């Protein structure tokens, strides 16, 4: 794949995104239409029913058109490997955005049911269109809500989607970095984890999830076994980042 830049700091779309953190936090989108443009780009350029073609097309858009806050291709390989290690029947993602992370999970675990929790209905609509084009809309479900909404979304996962004791094999955290730890603890309090559940957390260095990282370090060898993967920020080779891969050891 030929790309224009692997240094996001050289791209105007990166700086427009950086200036729109408030909109991202409240509306889940940058505000310049790039997310809808990414959907159109996929529908126009990716082979229908081909997950790999859709993923590659999203990556190409993020490199050559507008920067996206997906996990991206480099860190995506770490996500793929962790999913294959977990070999999940049931996987949960927090933070859908354009549907890229859930799509990678579905590709790496072709028999898994994948649920993705997203606060913004507009992102849910975009993601469903991409998943349908990729041919996996029957295996990925977007649940609009947040884990920190007082239990409403957790209750929906239990009553409407069958989440139950020990059923959750894999979790991908890629939403509000400050919510990583409380949301994981809320999920664990439901009893859905089991010994061997794998949790992957993106952007632990940039923008950063220091409370989550400190917790995993404190719990190392006790309730969690964590590997810190040194990598780079999405769609670049300069800005350092960390992806944490943690295996639940049980209480």
From TrEMBL:
Matches recorded under SUPFAM superfamilies: S-adenosyl-L-methionine-dependent methyltransferases (SSF53335)
InterPro entries, per database record: SAM-dependent_MTases_sf, SAM_O-MeTrfase
Keyword Oxidoreductase appears in the UniProt entry: no
GO biological process, one term: methylation
Transferase as UniProt keyword: yes
GO molecular function, one term: O-methyltransferase activity
Keywords on record: Methyltransferase, S-adenosyl-L-methionine, Transferase
Superkingdom field: Bacteria
Protein name: O-methyltransferase
Higher taxonomy: Bacteria, Bacillati, Actinomycetota, Actinomycetes, Mycobacteriales
């Amino acid at each position: 794949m030929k790309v224009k830049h692997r240094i996001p700091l050289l791209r105007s779309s990166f700086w427009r995104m950086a200036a729109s953190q408030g909109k991202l936090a409240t509306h889940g989108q940058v505000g310049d239409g790039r997310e809808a443009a990414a959907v159109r780009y996929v529908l126009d350029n990716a082979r229908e029913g081909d997950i790999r073609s859709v993923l590659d097309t999203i990556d190409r858009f993020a490199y050559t058109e507008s920067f996206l806050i997906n996990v991206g291709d480099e860190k995506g390989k770490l996500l793929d490997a962790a999913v294959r290690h977990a070999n999940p029947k049931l996987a949960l993602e927090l933070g859908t955005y354009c549907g890229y992370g859930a799509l990678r999970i579905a590709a790496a675990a072709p028999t898994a049911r994948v649920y993705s929790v997203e606060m913004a209905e507009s992102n849910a609509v975009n993601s469903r269109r991409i998943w349908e084009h990729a041919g996996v809309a029957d295996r990925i479900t977007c649940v609009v809500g947040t884990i920190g909404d007082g239990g409403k979304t957790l209750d929906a996962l239990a009553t409407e989607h069958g989440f139950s004791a020990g059923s959750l094999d894999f979790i991908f955290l890629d939403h509000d970095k400050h919510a990583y730890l409380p949301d994981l603890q809320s999920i664990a309090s439901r009893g859905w984890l089991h010994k061997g559940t794998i949790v992957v957390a993106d952007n632990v260095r940039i923008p950063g999830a220091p409370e989550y990282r400190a917790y995993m370090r404190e719990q190392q060898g006790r309730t969690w076994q964590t590997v810190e993967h040194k990598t780079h920020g999405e769609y670049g080779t300069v800005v350092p980042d960390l992806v944490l891969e943690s295996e639940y050891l049980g209480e």
